[in-house]
Amino acid sequence: MQRPQPTATERSFSEHEIIVSKTDLKGRMTYVNDVFCKVGLYEEEELLGQPHSILRHPDMPRAVFHLLWQRIQEGAEIFAYVKNMAKNGDFYWVLAHVTPSHDLQGKVDGYHSNRRLPGRNALAVIEPLYKRLLAEEQRQADRKLGMQAGAALLNDVLRERQQGYDEFVLGLATMD
Ligand SMILES: Cc1cc2nc3c(=O)[nH]c(=O)nc-3n(C[C@H](O)[C@H](O)[C@H](O)COP(=O)(O)O)c2cc1C
Question: How many domains does one find in the chain?
Answer without folding.
Answer: 1
